[in-house]
Amino acid sequence: MARTRYAPDRGLTARMVTTMFFIGLLYVVLVGVLLAFLRGSWGIILLVAGGLFIAQFWFSDRIAAYGMGAREVTPEQAPELHGAVDRLCALADMPKPRVAVANSDVPNAFATGRNRNSALVCATTGLLRRLEPEELEGVLAHELSHVAHRDVVVMTIASFLGVMAGILARVALWSGLGRDSRDPATAIAVLVIPLVSAVVYVISFLLTRLLSRYRELSADRAAALLTGRPSALASALTKVTGQMARIPTRDLRKAEPYNAFWFAPAFSSKDSLGRLFSSHPTLEQRLDQLARISAQLSR
């Protein structure tokens, strides 16, 4: 973690290292399986695997920001938003990230970027219109915590590795299979490669979901301690979650693929199975944690 005034979280650091280790291991296993079955195409496989990894590391944050409609704004264009970010960065003793606005009525915010120099914090127009200044600062402090803890980098990379596994498997199948239908290895590869790719995707999906839920609680905790106003963040959470029910389902569906990056999910699951696959802890869990922090601060 970079040296800032945000409270360190060793549990988050341990989970990030573990997640990246296992997802990286899964990626290596997938490439190994492809090389074992498609010996004649090892050059193409390594080239595609290496190219996708490099492209994903350098451009995944831009792809995510573009997909969520982020548009970088100047202090003249969004003075209140820039002012809040300036105050929080001074309070946290951290470099100021780029500031962006997404033209969406869905009240939300996110942070992305592979490092502090490329970090970006974005708020939607729906969020800016609905929150009070102290509530907005609570949300922005939450997002800046992701940048300070660098978990936004891990989530940006990890979220795309599962997708890359599927792409790599399809490229390998197209390039190396079907050339000799009489080869028994071809028939086995046609069955094994999609199966391994599916397993890699499912495991990486579950790992990122577990990390995502913990990092949201960690960001809430760090933001509340930094600002000293957990009640403002709790108010913002309650207001944003309540307003989600009034947003057209069509708009929520557009935001849902990026749930892991948002301050609050577009859809919240009520059943236990849905919570297992959820990118965020429940509202009750987040509010309960903030209430405990508020009690600690008052003492």
From TrEMBL:
It is an enzyme of class 3 (hydrolase). Zn(2+) binds at H142, H146, E216. It is found in: Cell membrane. The active site is at E143. The keyword Transmembrane applies. InterPro entries: HtpX_protease, Pept_M48_protease_HtpX, Peptidase_M48. It comes from the Bacteria. Residues 76-292 form the Peptidase M48 domain. The chain crosses the membrane at residues 12-35, 41-59, 152-173, 185-207. Its EC number is 3.4.24.-. It holds the Pfam family Peptidase_M48. The keyword Ion transport does not apply. One of its GO terms (molecular function) is metallopeptidase activity. Its cofactor is Zn(2+). Keywords: Cell membrane, Hydrolase, Membrane, Metal-binding, Metalloprotease, Protease, Transmembrane, Transmembrane helix, Zinc. HAMAP family: Pept_M48_protease_HtpX. Belongs to the peptidase M48B family. This is Protease HtpX homolog. It comes from Streptomyces meridianus.
